[in-house]
């Protein structure tokens, strides 16, 4: 054993709480606590869940040219991102494929904070250094900072007890504040479809902050298992599963994330890698697209399952799938040929050699409850 | 107290008075799987030892339940369709999976007994 898994600053806390630990993106991470995935999921939807997402990469860009430089790598409006706001983005490659998805926050003072996926963070850093390293300062905070997510309808109640100002934030706002005396960056955002916060904290104070939050009566520790079922119900993509270098934002049904100003008819059209491919697909329609799928039986349909039509012709593949505790039934996302993307189209997944009937459905599967003020 | 037998795949078996054998998964197995959300039960037919007779789906993953011996499945637990969580709540009781008639009734006694199974779990835990 001991293949040198990386540890987050909360590793000892996870073990103390009785977590079942697994390898994820090279890290030793809690997949669930003694509560179990189902109850952890439901607790987050009903009260508040605390997630350790410190494996994700935080990168600070600094300099007057940082926003303009970052725009050359993402199809998103960064130049006009207001101070104190966060926005979803993705790095594209020369064919419009997605290298990673990320959050970008404007801290003011010519500083942008990026949060990227754990499995991609070293490649992302190299990508940034290669393409915009001469235009701004790029500082990885991988060891320096931890990241906690507090999610659920009572996240505001719990966090506002320690930092009253956070109650006034709205969805995707970003601020620098003290929580119980600890200097943090807080955004009102998350990966569950619920209201909640993501908290960037100095690594050496993360354990103290997590314990302080867990002491609040609404808050329970939640593992990666429930994080996955929560984000799936929210219709949110998991990089490496629901999108990758072979899928464009159009195919991944992420057109909404391409800022209007960066589209073919926008004031700052294109100027990101693979723009011409993305625009061509937007114009003529992608040959395959990501859709929501609801199995019509109790059988969960998992990632990798083939999708067929009534004649057993293969028309797609499931990219994420499982059981939704809030939905009370199985659910999935998959890539299907363009002819099968309309709502309510009947399709079938092949599970253990049998056809499981499914319907193409809208996403999210569970209505989001972001706080928009 | 019935005489339970076990497999290395964490199934339990109990010989019934009518010559059938009841099969389920152990408390250790259900704990490792986590919350069970669906059980695909076997058909009423003969299976070879080692064949995947049933599948148990937890929130996270699907796992096979293998036929412990050659035999014919004669009954499945109808309660698991509506209440798959019985596998977690009462794995050695109401959460049973199926009953089968073994081709060789004596083969049941050659499977792991409680002591041998407990040692296996202990060894797994220490590995």
Which short descriptors sum up this protein?
heterodimer; A: 373 residues; alpha+beta; Gyrase A, domain 2; Elongation Factor Tu (Ef-tu), domain 3; 2 domains; six-stranded mixed beta sheet; 33% strand; globular; B: 127 residues; OB fold (Dihydrolipoamide Acetyltransferase, E2P); six-stranded antiparallel beta sheet; three-stranded antiparallel beta sheet; 4 helices; transaminase activity (chain A)
Could you please describe the fold and organization of this structure?
Chain A: Its EC number is 2.1.2.10. Chain A: Substrate binds at residue 198. Chain A: This is aminomethyltransferase. The complex is a heterodimer of chains A (373) and B (127). Chain A has helices at 11-16, 37-46, 66-71, 121-132, 155-162, 203-214, 224-233, 275-284, and strands at 20-24, 27-32, 48-52, 57-62, 86-92, 98-108, 111-116, 137-140, 145-151, 174-179, 182-187, 196-202, 219-221, 288-295, 306-308, 314-324, 329-337, 346-351, 354-361. With 373 residues, chain A is an alpha+beta fold. In chain A, a hairpin with a 2-residue loop joins strand 10 (174-179) and strand 11 (182-187). The model of chain A has no long low-confidence stretch (mean pLDDT 97). Chain B has a single domain (4-104, 111-121), classed as RNA polymerase II/Efflux pump adaptor protein, barrel-sandwich hybrid domain (OB fold (Dihydrolipoamide Acetyltransferase, E2P)). In chain B, the strands form 2 sheets. A 6-stranded antiparallel beta sheet of chain B has the order 1-2-3-9-8-5. Chain B has a 3-stranded antiparallel beta sheet with strand order 4-6-7. The termini of chain B are far apart. The model of chain B has no long low-confidence stretch (mean pLDDT 94). Chain A binds chain B through residues 31-32, 36-39, 41, 225, 228-229, 298-300, 302, 322-323, 325, 330, 352, and chain B through 34-35, 37-38, 40, 55, 57-62, 81.
